[in-house]
Amino acid sequence: MSDEDIVNNNLTALVVDDSPMIRKLHEMHLKKFGLKVQVAENGKNAVDLFRCGASFNLILMDKEMPIMDGAEATKELRIMGVTSMIVGVTSLDSIFERQAFMEAGLDHCFTKPLTSENIIFLLQELNNKNNEEN
Amino acid sequence: MEVGQMQRRLVDYTKTLFMEGFLDAQFLQLQQLQDESNPDFVVEVVSLFFDDSEKLLNDLSMALDQPNVDFKKVDAHVHQLKGSSSSIGAQRVKNACIAFRNFCEEQNIDATLRCLQQVKHEYYLVKNKLETLLRLEQQIVAAGGSIPTIEMGF
């Protein structure tokens, strides 16, 4: 993938995290790579967005959030038939907890802090996914 | 003081913060996200970090002040502080949180109280350093200069 391909994409993303600081940070990381980004402050808001007909190529999902956490929200979205790429971003260090989060229906799980390398990897995965579906 | 001098002072100050372990590479990633269309990005993120952290430190003080300490709650707060400090590159705060979480697991009240003091100490130190750094950047911009990028190979 050329650098231009990476930036000139029509990809949309949803950042789900209860920390305003993390939302702002991750939103900017994604915007830098040309994605159109929306944010949600907990799992329930994310699910509601999809119920209202919104859709996104990529969802960055925090684990620990009030009202509805990342694992519950991921399960709910998969039950609803959402096929977006869902990526967990968490500071959980226990392998057991990360496994449980993955089993909720994640495509990938990264440890905080999110880096530019993580995003480049995700863009390549999204590109591969788009190519497979077309 | 002319712009070149101010820029050199900023670079030296930033390098010191890295060498003393206050900031790590994640902070550089943060600075790289700032550009002409988002000239206040770093200031905004750092302010949010301050708001977040001060609230968490208050919550921690209250949680540890209870007659029956709920260590799960304490751990959840520390966990969040660890996440935000690591995302901004506040390395010493992050490390203090890691130690804190170990003592939460042991449910050791004396040790966790000491950890809280340690985390607060590290937080106020880095807050002070970041405020100084951002002030230096502001002075450069106000004088018409640009903020120099720091190379990590020092």
UniProtKB/TrEMBL annotation, chain B:
Domain HPt, residue spans: 38-137
PANTHER family attached to this UniProt entry: HISTIDINE-CONTAINING PHOSPHOTRANSFER PROTEIN 1, PHOSPHORELAY INTERMEDIATE PROTEIN YPD1
Keywords tagged on the record: Cytokinin signaling pathway, Phosphoprotein, Two-component regulatory system
Phosphoprotein listed as a keyword: yes
Cell compartment(s), UniProt: Cytoplasm, Cytosol; Nucleus
Segments passing through the bilayer: none
Source species taxonomy: Eukaryota, Viridiplantae, Streptophyta, Embryophyta, Tracheophyta
Domain of life where this protein originates: Eukaryota
Entry comment, domain topic: Histidine-containing phosphotransfer domain (HPt) contains an active histidine that mediates the phosphotransfer.
Organism: Hibiscus sabdariffa (roselle)
Protein name: Histidine-containing phosphotransfer protein
Positions where Phosphohistidine occurs in the chain: H79
Gene3D superfamilies: HPT domain
